[in-house]
Specification:
With 483 residues, the chain is an alpha/beta fold. It is built from 14 helices and 16 strands. It is 37% helix and 16% strand. Residues 387-394 have low confidence and may be disordered. The protein binds pyridoxal-5'-phosphate. The site of pyridoxal-5'-phosphate has 14 residues, from helix 3.
């Protein structure tokens, strides 16, 4: 059985959402703009889902629009805000949280350029805890046209201090967008009470299908349609509505409202604590990259000294546990996390971070199995001394060991008594595995030597600077724990 712990990337579709979508496709397939009974039925369904969304989001007034997802909601909000800033005096910048999802800074830059606005796009710094620097915001907000701050971060789960941000912006004319994608169903938003101008949401992050989302727009907030056409959604977002998506989202919102499908905060926190304890047991020395008390109860982001995120991801994947190395959008690139870098975490932590996230519909049985698998992953690593393959010995190393890859050779000269070693003619394919082996067996790497020009194959001597940092990171971690 697969243990899916990547809910911040996307979620499966809830059974009642699937049923609702199928019903909308099979029987209630009308176009809500049609005036015959089939169309009216579709419109009634759409109106009912919108009303439910208003109650769940704490948005009795303003607009709640159906659109394709959060990226579209972000574009619409940014376009709306920026269009209203043309010709405005006293405004010279747009602000976004340094840990914001890529869609936000990219949209700010894109629309600023396209609209020909002379506005700087500035990142609001965050502290080590991932929260916005409110003093910085207070200083810059008076000359900002738009401030974008997510409600909860997709990589770390860190929740923003929305009331603190509102206070820092008080008295300014800046518009405020809160990317609420990761918050839906996990924390109260009170959109109207907090005077948020724009709040995008995405169905697929909470058990609805991909391709359906919501955008809340405060009453009187500037609005410019991104899509012009047939005049759907009161001409605010043209295009025939995604009725099966709306029906499915409606089932999720109804489940949020009736409180029977999703776990409450206390239960989710207890689940997270159990997962955290299993991780700590499985991977001694593990550090959490964000303070749990500030995070969504369903997200853990951690690093293990000496273990790259790639190795951990492979290990989890082999145990059919799906986790991720950061946001799903950047998962394909093996780059350190921008979010953790913005928080000022050490390089080894940003380069080896793993995110584990579960959905609020998870039950105790699922968490039991997840904990069991995590502990099994730890046991597998210990049993193999992180070797992970026949190329590296699982028992103590001493003297000269030869490794061969595709006909090329690399040597490890080790002295077991002094725990010192030298790598000779390093091969790129072995860098990570050897670094892990040395770190696991507590060897100090004294030198990396190339004995020839490597015309026949690539040397990885330059990669070893990084590998040494991994080995050193683990040593420092252990020293800090001892002291
Ligand atoms: N904002 C946040 C915080 C997200 O996590 C995501 C998705 O990863 C998005 C925006 C983009 O959402 P969508 O996939 O609906 O376009």
């Amino acid at each position: 059985m697969e243990i899916y712990l990547d809910a911040n990337a996307t979620t499966p579709v809830l059974a009642q959402a699937r049923t609702a979508a199928l019903e909308a496709m099979t029987h209630d397939y009308g176009n809500p703009s049609s005036v015959h009974s089939t169309g009216l039925k579709a419109r009634a369904l759409m109106d009912a889902v919108r009303s439910c969304a208003r109650r769940v989001l704490g948005a009795p007034s303003g607009q709640v629009l159906f659109l394709s997802g959060a990226t579209e909601g972000i574009q619409t909000a940014v376009l709306s805000a920026l269009s209203s800033l043309r010709g405005r005096v006293g405004i010279d910048c747009l602000l976004y949280g340094a840990t914001e999802h890529k869609a936000v800074p990219e949209a700010l830059r894109h629309w600023t350029q396209l609209l020909g606005l002379d506005l700087q796009v500035l990142a609001i710094p965050v502290g080590r805890d991932g929260r916005h620097d409110l003093a910085w915001l207070r200083e810059h907000a008076p000359r900002a046209g738009l401030v974008c701050t997510m409600a909860a971060n997709n990589e770390t789960g860190v929740t923003s201090d929305l009331d603190g941000i509102a206070a820092a912006m008080a008295g300014t004319s800046a518009l405020w967008m809160v990317d609420s994608v990761q918050a839906l169903g996990k924390m109260a938003l009170d959109l109207v009470k907090r005077r948020i101008d724009y709040a995008p949401f995405s169905g697929h992050k909470l058990y609805a299908p991909k391709g359906i989302g919501l955008l809340y727009v405060r009453e009187d907030a500037p609005f410019t349609p991104l899509m012009a056409g047939g005049g759907q959604e009161g001409s605010l977002r043209s295009g025939t509505e995604n009725m099966s998506g709306i029906a499915a989202l409606g089932a999720v919102l109804a489940a949020l409202e009736d409180g029977r499908t999703f776990q409450d905060q206390t239960t989710l926190t207890a689940f997270r604590d159990r997962l955290a304890a299993s991780l700590e047991q499985a991977f001694p020395g593990l550090v959490f990259n964000a303070p749990p008390e500030l995070c969504l109860p369903s997200t853990l982001n951690f690093s293990v000294p000496g273990l790259s995120s790639k190795l951990l991801l492979d290990l989890f994947d082999a145990a059919q546990v799906r986790v991720s190395g950061g946001s799903a959008c950047s998962a394909a690139k093996a780059a350190p996390s921008d979010v953790l870098e913005a928080m000022g975490l050490p390089a080894w932590q940003t380069a080896s971070a793993v995110r584990l996230s579960f959905g609020p519909a998870s039950d105790a049985e699922f968490i039991d199995e997840a904990c069991k698998r995590i502990r099994a992953c730890g046991a597998a690593l210990r049993a193999n001394c992180l070797s992970g393959g026949e190329q590296t010995p699982s028992v103590g190393i001493d003297g000269l060991t030869r490794f061969a890859v595709d006909g090329a050779c690399c040597y490890l000269l080790a002295d077991a008594d002094s725990r010192r070693c030298v790598v000779v003619d390093p091969l790129p394919q072995l860098t990570e595995r050897l670094a892990q082996l040395l770190s696991c067996q507590r060897f100090t790497l004294m030198a990396v030597l190339d004995t020839h020009s490597h015309g026949d194959h690539a040397s990885s001597a330059h990669d070893w600077a990084e590998a040494k940092a991994l080995v050193r990171g683990r040593a420092e971690q252990e020293k800090a724990q001892r002291s």
